[in-house]
Amino acid sequence: MNSKKLFEKISKYILKNRMTRQGEKIAVALSGGPDSVFLIHTLNILKDELKISLRAVHINHNIRGEFAARDEEFCRKLCSEMNIPLDIYSFDIPAIARESGKSLEEAGHDERRRIYINLIESGKAVKIATGHTADEQAETVLIRLLTGAGEQGLSGIAPVSGGFLIRPLLETRKEDILEYLENSGIEYMVDHTNAENTTVRNRVRNVLLPLIREQFNPEVESALCKTAAVFREQNDYTGRIVNFYLDRFSFVDYNEARLDLPGVTNLAPWIMKNLLRKLIARFKGNLTNIGYVHTQELYALAEKPTGSSLILPGGLKAVREYNYLIIKKNDIVEIPAFPETELTFPGENILPEWDIKITGELVQEAPSFEGSKLSDLQSVYVDFDACQEMKFAIRTRRDGDRFIPSGMTGSKKLKDYFTDMKIPREQRHKIPLIMCGEVVLWIAGYRRSNLYRILPSTKRVLNIRIEKL
To answer: What does the pLDDT read at residue 169?
Structure first.
């Protein structure tokens, strides 16, 4: 392919995938290999057309000894000749991998990502451009097919990911890159480890793909890239559906992810399984080591009775609790109950440890309605004169707590009330109890007590409200 058509193709691909915007600072991940060298030359040629500015970042992993030092020096010289700013970082990735228990690949990936984010947070760059090619896309799809990936895995490498990683060469063949570099007399470094068939990717690249090209399909890379594009469209559509339901029927915080099962009961199995994987990703931050078998087990757990559980990789545990499927850390330590805190009514009480504000206000007259509507999720009305001789307080549940629900005359164990309400055990210690003396006046957000309710003889009505800070 002649250079003009090649650059036009890359420019259209960048624009089609909205990789850059006018005025953005782009940092090119420059290893010194042919792909990254071609990428920085290409973006340097297209920068005026795209209205972007360039810099480069080179990360020395210190894995290949003198070859790593050679590549670093090459990148330094290249950027100097092109008058492009260069940031160089050096890490002992083998040592980091040993200390963290990660593989070399994982440790390198994590350090690179950390550096990229630092570049963006420092204002040096808005996007990071990497030199992934169509050949690497084909290799990735084939590897994932061989290991049993689903539609997300078979969608391959995304043109844009994380909002900041862009891959302008993802539809560009390696042979076109090498041809351009050779014809232009542009030097690049060669990583000798790419010829060693010690990794799965190298064996796919050097053994399997040439065999398929020779005996099955001479355009196998193109076919695999088309497959990735099809699955990526399907995965994008599935993702929108999954996010719609997760936003409405799940809750995620530091300690757990909770899915309201009745809200997603009628979803097709493949949507539900994608939803469960995305729920883990939202909680854990990634899907490392979460494979097909775990997705199947998690899907089956959603159909099992309360109390059923499942151990997942990465120190996670999944539990079926009433109408919820809960994913939490396997070694989770329950948050201790907050200490009892006295409340001043009338008045405003700020409770940072609870992240709430509780206000008690005397109102002129009682609401005209009776029954359970005298309380809701954030507010309750009580007879102030009936309980003003006792202190108001807030605390969490204790063993032996009893409660007289509104509309009833007999007391009930708080534990039994939580069970009847199908409140997961992991949530019960977080629910505020508003106390009047030793009486549970209000299970905030759930139900008020039948004691100290508004009566025809009530003279002063206290309205208690809870708001998030």
So the answer is: 97
